[in-house]
Amino acid sequence: MTQAPSSPVRRSVRVALGERSYDILIGPGLIAAAGAEIGSRMKGRRVAVITDEHVAPIYLEPFMRSLSASGIEAVSQVLPAGEKTKSFPHLMDVCDGVLGARIERNDAVVALGGGVIGDLTGFAAGIVRRGSRFIQVPTSLLAQVDSSVGGKTGINSRHGKNLIGVFHQPDLVLADTDVLDTLSPREFRAGYAEVAKYGLIDKPEFFAWLERSWRDIFAGGDARIEAIATSCQAKADVVAADERENGLRALLNLGHTFGHALEAATEYDSHRLVHGEGVSIGMVLAHQFSARMNLASPDDARRVEAHLGEVGLPISMAQIPGVLPPVETLMDAIAQDKKVKSGKLTFILTRGIGQSFVADDVPASEVLAFLKDKHPK
Amino acid sequence: MTQAPSSPVRRSVRVALGERSYDILIGPGLIAAAGAEIGSRMKGRRVAVITDEHVAPIYLEPFMRSLSASGIEAVSQVLPAGEKTKSFPHLMDVCDGVLGARIERNDAVVALGGGVIGDLTGFAAGIVRRGSRFIQVPTSLLAQVDSSVGGKTGINSRHGKNLIGVFHQPDLVLADTDVLDTLSPREFRAGYAEVAKYGLIDKPEFFAWLERSWRDIFAGGDARIEAIATSCQAKADVVAADERENGLRALLNLGHTFGHALEAATEYDSHRLVHGEGVSIGMVLAHQFSARMNLASPDDARRVEAHLGEVGLPISMAQIPGVLPPVETLMDAIAQDKKVKSGKLTFILTRGIGQSFVADDVPASEVLAFLKDKHPK
Question: pLDDT by residue (tens digit) across B159-204?
Fold first, then answer.
């Protein structure tokens, strides 16, 4: 990890948000190059690096070495791995650590890890001194294509996932594609669900390319970098058009309302279901529900099911290990999900592959009836 | 409190922040009129009211009755009074309470109380669902003229005051001037320090009017409403020009760097020192230090001292009950204060009454020597 990358391939995606614009660098060797990339972009010379127990043993030392080689003084804080870390006590720990390290306005807070570390650290950076500089170094596919783009940060509440947070844009994202080689197949697949999502939202050709090329993407190399860059660009375009999620950005929630409900129903137990798996099942359900509402052809739902199933993602509630709570509990989680306005249910539905849209008046009774059909009991 | 106001005098100040613009209504009877004022401005029909143990027994019931009479469904949460409430555990409590009350995007979170309740509740509103509607009903003079204008919210950290928070603008501020009659003289004076601050920043005629008219302002009536409206307008003008405190807004910190250090030195013990008293001493110190640096005439420092002393505010460290920590501890608190850039000290200094400016390269050695002179030992 400490050598210069052997392959020169590197992609850069610009997130255009006026004075809050930033670059996402995507390619091999970026952890080793972190000091140079960060050092050339920031005025301050101090950073606080937040990571977790899974990532630290592999990447923390080379990352710190790279910073040090560029004259950047860094302190690090290692948190427990897992979704439960997205909580108030850990948020307080990180804020205290960053303040204790005397990180000032030109310095930065760095998230070295997956979505949990990125969401928590970004939130802390967003509230320390009412907003500090923030750099993301995402180490999972999910974080590279989703959570590290767009500035959504947050923690979970006992009332639901990501219900507490801020919008806080990073100043730089370094997506080192080498790190994906150390992910478990299950974790890689979970991130792939979000890659597929961008095709399903509004890029039918991209989805068709994924259907043909997924084996290359899973194998690594240029196809993988291409898939990540296309995903980041897709998300960047949506975020640039609608930073605060007043309209268009809601499309990024395709599969997420059902997905979040399933995550809540499995108590965020990653042995049973991880976020990307919830999104995979959620996207299948969204396409099936759209077909049931006569909005889309059942063939499209079957195509989504076939592709996600082929790569090894779960595509039905029945595949979730253990007993699911009753449908009424799922409905309650859906109603408490943040995409709710004055009691009406808002869902992302579709008219076909790559033709998603925001439906903000979905009758709860239809959703209930649909879930009763699909629930494994 | 439940009757319509006997006096029709009401002032309105607009804070011009584009799509985040809002009104501050100032006058008698606004708690009784809260339901009508809120109801006519918001789409949602639910609010969560956050208040404290001191305010609740006097104002919560009439406030809730006013909401109910306008068809607004409200839940309330009563927190302990005092600066220590601005902490992570209480922030978590409020977020949980607001989410538990199912406050949605068109609904609102209401702060009914002084600066502590406003800062904490505004922070909670700023992070619940990544930003919820927020209404301030400030019940202290300090909150009416300072913390309820401008969108700064936050809690304290063990590293210092207000170091964690967000910018989150309210949608409406209702400053009921009747409630000021129930403040203790000490609390009223503490708020008055911030009123005087607006004169000292850039309104020499306002400061001269205060020197002449402070007895009328303390007595209540039109002079008081005029002083509050002028203060709110002064702060609104600064905030509109510089919402995120990149430049001009720093002037509002006149007296605050010294003041915060003194608050930290007295461990936020309100028996020894409250915020406005710290600001009063801090403003005197800022004028004395400016004179020492040959920036301003010592006569101006004496005039500030004379006026603040006349109204009964503390004007020197020697007046703080108990033993102060050594000067080095004060310096450490000053360095950790958030107005620091790459080790340089930033202070608001002055060239005379109403001629404050941002000095961002104040030598720490000069400050240390000055404080050694002024420290009561």
Answer: 888 899 999 999 999 999 999 999 999 999 999 999 999 999 999 9
Assigned architecture for domain A11-181: 3-Layer(aba) Sandwich (3.40)
User: pLDDT tens across A149-168, in order?
Assistant: 889 999 999 888 889 999 99
Choose which CATH entry (3.40.980.10, 3.40.50.150, 3.40.190.10, 3.40.50.1970) describes domain B11-179: 3.40.50.1970
Give the pLDDT score at A342: 52
Q: Do B91 and A96 touch (CB under 8 A)?
A: no
CA distance A315 to A338: 24
Instruction: Tell me phi and psi for residue B343, to 5 degrees.
Output: 85, -20
Residue-wise pLDDT tens digits, A272-314: 999 999 999 999 999 999 999 999 999 999 999 999 999 999 9
Catalytic positions of B: 130, 152, 194, 235, 245, 249, 253, 256, 260, 275
Q: Can you give the pLDDT at residue A9?
A: 82
Residue set of the binding site of B: 115-119, 139-140, 152, 161, 194, 256, 275
SS3 call for A222: helix
Residue closest to B1 by CA, chosen among B47, B75, B73, B55: B55
Of B126, B131, B159, the CB nearest to A99: B159
Chain B: nearest CA to A252, how far in angstroms?
A: 16
Q: Please list, residue by residue across B200-230, b when 16 or more beta carbons sit within 10 angstroms of its beta carbon and e when fewer do.
A: bbbbeebbebbbeebeebbeeeebbbbbbbb
Instruction: Report CB contact under 8 Å: A105, B129.
Output: no
Tell me the three state secondary structure of residue B358. strand
Chain B partners of A128 at a C-beta cutoff of 8 Å?
A: 163-164
| Phi/psi of residue A162, nearest 5 degrees | 55, 25
Q: Which CATH number fits domain B185-374: 2.30.30.60, 1.10.4160.10, 3.40.50.2000, 1.20.1090.10?
A: 1.20.1090.10
| Helix (H) or strand (E) run with residue A298 in it | helix A298-310
Report whether B148 contacts B175 (CB < 8 A).
yes
Contact (CB, 8 A) for A58 and A182: yes
Which stretches of chain A drop beneath a pLDDT of 50? 1-6, 338
Of the two residues B23 and A18, the one the predictor is more confident about is B23
Q: Do A130 and B44 touch (CB under 8 A)?
A: no
Q: Please give the ipTM for the structure prediction.
A: 0.87
What are the sequence ranges of the domains in chain B?
Answer: 11-179, 185-374
Q: Which two tokens stand for residue A151?
A: 């500035």
